[in-house]
Design brief:
Chain A: Its cofactor is thiamine diphosphate. Chain A: InterPro entries: THDP-binding, Transketo_C/PFOR_II, Transketolase-like_Pyr-bd, Transketolase_C. The complex is a heterodimer of chains A (325) and B (360). Chain A folds into 2 domains: 183 residues, Rossmann fold; 128 residues, Rossmann fold, CATH 3.40.50.920. Chain A is 35% helix and 20% strand. In chain A, strand 2, helix 2 and strand 3 form a beta-alpha-beta unit. The radius of gyration of chain A is 19 Å and the shape is globular. Chain A is an alpha/beta fold and 325 residues long. Chain B has 360 residues and is an alpha/beta fold. Chain B is built from 14 helices and 7 strands. Chain B has a 5-stranded parallel beta sheet with strand order 1-2-3-7-6, with helices on both faces. Chain B has a two-stranded antiparallel sheet with strand order 4-5. In chain B, strand 2, helix 7 and strand 3 form a beta-alpha-beta unit. The chains are: A alpha/beta (325), B alpha/beta (360).
């Protein structure tokens, strides 16, 4: 076992699959000699050569089209969009083309494609780098959306994504890249796509989150514990499709839930979770499901991030509201 | 200074032609090396496609076909470029480019099912290297660069060819696709069928560039403008482009042609944007008329041969429509099942729900 940061775990997953399957290709803007702007592909070109790990011209739609073309010629592409905000440039290739390929060909051509991209607030990027746009992709049939919150999950989920014969959009929260290390097995393993994980067990209230908000919820759970409440924290890990079974099971136990997301209220996947809970678990609920989310504005310029992003106090406040309903 | 550069560039893009409007060879040196049988086969395909187009329009009017983009006027452009390909080459068509994919191996009844919106139309048979016709203008162009790079990485002696219209040359994807293929020295051919109108907007309003072919210059790839009503010229430039592609040099081919019919059968009225004089002018350049003359002069074509093709086409179309009619209707559960290799939790539940509904 090695201590790894999330970005090291991501690199390790790509290295593992580049070794395992000669059809795996890794590419994007600056991913070659430069090793990616965050060093996620550090050393991979030297290890696997320029035919397997390479730079692309600076054009996101072109990268998306390249991916579909490589997929139908039998490759297993792992493409990088340098920052999630640049996805608008390739929205057609991602959700209009890659996600629809299997349906369009009546099941004949799957798209064994992984699209990696960094996102997430708290690191003071310029505009259109940090936005939580996962809801846009999650609303598109034909592609899964995965968001790890720990190094262990990051490696296992990325290996699963690369091995999937259907496309997976893999989001990497920038704040989590190097924020902590944990034990990550050096050997290969997978974490199933579409399965949530209980990151902390509790019986009084369920906090449902994904990405960096999982850690916000864990901090909130510590605060709540000081006041005698045991919060359960569920990490969705996959935001499309959503593992409702795990959520409903938890809510049946706690009878109370708060949905927490970094995305704006009108964005993200919180609304889906809450709507599904009202369909599946309303008779188990002792209080309305409340939510913590960012306001419905454009993602803020850097200096305003701190006042805009949800934090653990927001979570504690909403948790207490459902606990004291 | 800048103007002079553009003029110099544009002077390199004069239209390439082999057969003139009267079926006379005007460029003997460029005559492709085709046998008599091959020349007859090309004519066969053009006549067949013209009949198929007429039948498709009439079936559409009877409500028996669905979405259809007429092809008459573009037969030389489509069939000439396709004839220069090998069986294992890849075609990434736009929605009008159904003849090329059918001549590449997609059964006619599946083309009809595609028109009707049945998913079996997209279930491309094994060994037929095509993608379904693309609806988003230009999306197939960047994908062609990817297929071409894939073929190169697999060390195949094959190319990817993609088709769009003059409007497609205004899309960002058009530039990105050419640029990617050029940068990767990938075996790609980009065909722009300049049929003069992007639905209703004339090509002169799409760009300040005098030709579309010259747009290749900026991407560092070959560019050629060709008489798209001249099947021998279309064949010849595509054959050359294919050789260059295998050598890592992509080509942009601008085929100058015309569509006689509406943009699609979904209510487009060309009299709103084209004059009868213009239609007449282009019909004089008809690809079938000039190639028929050329073949008749060589004693390779006559009325009997023509009628034989017409009868065969009509019989095939009738049989294909029947086969399309006999294809089982789609159920919502079928659509759920073709979404993923392994159904996720949500669709698993929905599949059960729809199967239950469908069993009633």
């Amino acid at each position: 076992m090695a201590q790894m940061t999330m970005i090291q775990a991501i690199t390790d997953a790509m290295r593992t699959e580049l070794k395992n399957d000669e059809n795996v290709l890794v590419y994007g803007e600056d991913v070659g000699q430069n090793g990616g702007v965050f060093r996620a592909t550090e050393g991979l070109q030297d290890e696997f050569g320029e035919e397997r790990v390479f730079d692309t011209p600076l054009a996101e739609s072109g990268i998306g089209g390249l991916t579909l073309g490589l997929a139908v010629t039998g490759f297993r592409p792992v493409m990088e969009i340098q920052f999630f905000g640049f996805v608008f440039e390739t929205m057609d290739e991602v959700v209009g083309q890659i996600a629809r390929l299997r349906y369009r060909t009546g099941g004949k051509y799957g798209a064994p494609v992984t699209i990696r991209t960094p996102y997430g607030g708290g690191v003071k990027t310029p505009e259109l780098h940090a936005d939580s746009l996962e809801g846009l992709i999650a609303q598109s049939p034909g592609i899964s959306v995965v968001i790890p919150s720990t190094p262990y999950d990051a490696k296992g989920l990325l290996i699963s994504a690369i091995r999937s014969n259907d496309p997976v959009f893999y989001l990497e929260h920038m704040k989590l890249y190097r924020s902590f290390r944990e034990e990550v097995p050096e050997e290969e393993y997978t974490v199933e796509i579409g399965k949530a994980d209980v990151k902390r067990e509790g019986k009084d209230v369920t906090l449902i989150a994904y990405g960096a908000m999982v850690h916000t919820c864990l901090k909130a759970a510590d605060q709540l514990a000081e006041e005698g409440y045991e919060a359960e924290v569920i990490d969705l890990r996959t935001v499309s499709p959503i593992d409702m079974d795990t959520i409903v099971e938890s809510v049946k136990k706690t009878n109370r839930a708060v949905m927490v997301q970094e995305a704006q209220r009108q964005a993200g996947v919180g609304s889906n979770v809450m709507a599904d809970l009202s369909e599946r678990a309303i008779l188990h609920l002792e209080a309305p499901v409340l939510r913590v989310a960012a306001p419905d504005t454009v993602f803020p310029f850097a200096a305003a991030e701190d006042v805009w992003l949800p934090n653990e106090n927001d979570v504690v406040e909403k948790a207490k509201a459902v606990l004291n309903f | 200074m800048a103007t002079k550069t553009i003029e110099q560039v544009e002077s390199h893009f004069e239209m390439f032609q082999i057969l003139n409007e009267n079926g006379e060879v005007v460029n003997k040196d460029a005559m492709p090396d085709l046998s008599d049988e091959q020349l007859q086969e090309i004519m066969h395909r053009m006549v067949y496609t013209r009949i198929w187009d007429q039948r498709a329009i009439s079936l559409n009017r009877q409500g028996r076909l669905g979405f259809y983009a007429p092809v008459a006027g573009q037969e030389a452009s489509m069939i000439g470029s396709h004839y220069a390909l090998e069986k294992e080459d890849w075609i990434l068509p736009g929605y009008r480019d159904v003849p090329q994919v059918v001549w590449h191996g997609l059964p006619l009844y599946q083309a009809f099912l595609y028109s009707r919106g049945h998913f079996h139309g997209g279930q491309i048979p094994e060994g037929v290297n095509i993608l379904p016709p693309q609806i988003i203008i230009g999306a197939q162009i960047v994908q062609a660069a990817g297929v071409a790079l894939g073929l190169k990485r697999r060390h195949k002696d094959n190319v990817a060819i993609t088709y769009t219209g003059d409007g497609g040359a205004s899309q960002g994807d058009f530039y990105e696709g050419m640029n990617f293929a050029g940068a990767y020295e990938a075996p790609a051919i980009f065909v722009v069928q300049n049929n003069q109108f992007a639905i209703s907007v004339p090509v002169e309003e799409q760009s300040a560039a005098k030709t579309i072919a010259q747009k290749a210059v900026a991407a560092g790839i070959h560019g050629v403008q060709v008489d798209g009503m001249d099947i021998l010229a279309m064949y010849s430039v595509t054959e050359t482009a294919r050789k260059n592609a295998l050598n890592g040099e992509p080509t942009l081919i601008e085929s100058v042609c015309y569509r006689y019919g509406p943009h699609t059968m979904a209510g487009d009225d060309p009299t709103r944007y084209r004059t009868e004089e213009l239609d007449n002018e282009w019909e004089k350049k008809d690809p079938l008329i000039r190639f028929r003359k050329f073949l008749e002069d060589k004693d390779l074509w006559n009325e009997d041969k023509e009628n034989e093709v017409v009868d065969q086409a009509k019989a095939d179309i009738k049989a294909a429509i029947k086969q399309a009619d006999d294809t089982p209707k789609q159920k919502a559960s079928d659509l759920i099942e073709i979404m993923y290799e392994k159904l996720p939790q949500n669709l698993q539940e929905q599949l059960e729900e729809y199967r239950e509904k469908e069993s009633k």
